[in-house]
Amino acid sequence: MTQRTKSKPVTAAPSGKNWAGKLIVRCFSQADLNAALTRDVEIWLCGTGRFVLAASSAACATDSAHVVARGSAHVEAWDSAHVEARASAHVVAWGSAHVVARD
Asked: Coil, strand, or helix at residue 1?
């Protein structure tokens, strides 16, 4: 686990496009996440939601989101996000994000 300090990426609006032109979808619940995983979008896990990210999925966690990353999932954690990484999940933590690594 590496903790770095970096400025948060700027996004134009809660729903906008990232620097590569990919649509950003902000998810506030597991149902939002499940729907977003079926699309080719950049996923941001927000608010105080609890999420399970599995397989080879990727997302950014922000605010106070709590994420369990399984399999080969990839998570970038920002703000006060909390990520529990299991198996071979990959997490990059910025600022005051909290990561627990298991397995």
From this structure: coil
Tokens representing 5 are: 């300090």
pLDDT in tens, 37-83: 999 999 999 999 999 999 999 999 999 999 999 999 999 999 899 99
DSSP state of 15: S
Closest CA to 89 of 70, 68, 102: 70
| Gap between the Cα atoms of 39 and 99, Å rounded | 27
Q: What is the DSSP string of 22-82?
A: PBEEEESSHHHHHHHTTSSSEEEE-TT-EEEE-TT-EEEE-TT-EEEE-TT-EEEE-TT-E
